Amino acid sequence: MSVRFTQSCPICGRRVEIRASLLGSVVACQHCKAEFVAMGDDVEFQRCQGTADLMRRIDRVLEQTQPIAPISPSATSLS
Predict the structure, then answer these.
(1) With bands split at pLDDT 50, 70 and 90, how would you rate the model's confidence at 64?
(2) What is the pLDDT of residue 24?
(3) Which residues pair with 8 in a beta bridge?
(4) Are 4 and 38 in contact (CB under 8 A)?
(5) What is residue 35's predicted lDDT score, i.e. its pLDDT?
(6) How far is CA 18 from CA 13, 26, 60, in A?
(7) Residue 36 burial by Cβ neighbours in a 10 Å radius (0-12, 13-18, 19+)
(8) DSSP character for 29?
(9) What is the mean pLDDT of residues 73-79?
(10) Distance of CA 26 to CAs 20, 23, 37, Å?
(11) Within the chain, where are the H helices?
(12) Residue 79 needs a FRET pair 20 to 30 A away by CA distance; which of 11, 51, 69, 72 works?
């Protein structure tokens, strides 16, 4: 699955879904066929980048964390 973002077409103003791998490339609007550079300055792209950064940080923390041994039922009983 590829990461995508949306950007407004500078000609017709409609939202265009663009693969993140095309960032900085010339793309064409599916609606009016105008060509423009995929900039990624829209809010959705920033949100996507923020989410991706957060997920990378979570993965790093999980890699550094030792698994916790499960607590046995007898250890939790209060006699």
Answers:
(1) confident
(2) 87
(3) 15
(4) no
(5) 93
(6) 15, 11, 28
(7) middle
(8) -
(9) 59
(10) 12, 8, 4
(11) 43-64, 73-76
(12) 69
**Cα→Cα distances 11→40, 61, 62, Å:** 16, 44, 45
* Angle, CA 54 vertex, CA 51 and CA 64 arms, to 5°: 150
Cβ–Cβ under 8 Å, residues 34 and 68: no
What pLDDT score does 30 carry?
Answer: 92
| Cα gap 74→64, rounded to integer Å | 29
Q: Are 14 and 32 in contact (CB under 8 A)?
A: yes
Q: Which two tokens stand for residue 63?
A: 């890699």
| Residues 6+ away with beta carbon under 8 Å from 73 | none
Q: What is the pTM of this model?
A: 0.49
Residue 16's Cβ-side half-sphere holds a number of Cα atoms within 13 Å equal to 28
User: Rounded to whole angstroms, how far apart are CA atoms 68 and 30?
Assistant: 51
Under DSSP, the state recorded for 37 is E
